Structures are given as structure tokens and as C-alpha cells.
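Hi support team,

I submitted a single chain yesterday and got back a structure, but I'm not sure I'm reading the C-alpha cell output correctly. Could someone confirm the output below corresponds to the sequence I sent? I've pasted both exactly as they appear in my results page.

Thanks,
R.
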Amino acid sequence: AGSGKKVVSQKQGFKELEYKEDSWYYRDSYSGFFQSWGQSVVYYKNKPFWTELYGGGMKKKYHNNYEFSNHTFGFLKGALSAGAKMNSFNPRGPKSYKEGELEYLCMWKGNIKKFNGNEKILYKGNVVFTHDFVGGLILSPS
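Hi R., thanks for writing in. Yes, this is the structure output for that exact sequence:
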């Protein structure tokens, strides 16, 4: 989603990003701000191939703190783009990533076929944001 472009949403009340390369197509659809839920889908030759559902958000004490939340979401985008993903499966971001006083931690079980996990962001060692996620391959008749 980091290199995706904003597109007109196919779902009312959602924001969407997409990225295309050759026969591959990626679409991320999400709604909410302090608490949000979304789904990423990878298509191959116009057929859904892989998906991930994710949701969670800022800890309640940070609801209505737009400045801190925007800063946290900017850090999350950086964390999700960090790390080498070509040689190993990372459903979200790397296992750990740190920048200044913010730290990203991600744990998961499974592989690209089927997985689940949790990511969190800490500020000065305290959890300020969490997301749960689940996903895997989509197998359809030919």
C-alpha cells in the first residue's frame, strides 16, 4: 500500500489504494481512523489470489488526539514498508522496527497460505496502537 495510489472507493465510507504491475493487482480498502478495519487483496490475472483482514487502532486514551494519531499512522506506513520481504514472508511489517521514540513490533503464526497475528506500536515503551490480522491464499475452481 505504501506505493499504491488513492482510487475511488468501491465501498461507501471506505478509502482505497491500488497498485498494478504486469498480471498482478493489489487493492487495500479500509474505513475508520482512531479505530479502523480493512482488507488487502492481491489479484493475479484478475482473480483474487491472496487476502489479509486487519483491524484495531489507537488506545482509547489517544482517541481525539489527531496530531499524535497522524504521527503514529505515518510511522506505521514506514514500518510496513521496512525490512526485506523478498526472501521471507512478512504479512505486515518486520518483526521489529524503531524510529525515535516509536517502536513497531509484529508477531504472527503461519505462512503465506494461512496466517494470523498482531502488530503494535509503542511510544516510550507504552503500547499506543494495536492491530490484529488474519489471511492467506484464496483457492477457487479454475
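A quick pointer for reading it: Residues 91 and 102 are 20 Å apart (CA to CA). Let us know if anything else looks off.

Best,
Support desk
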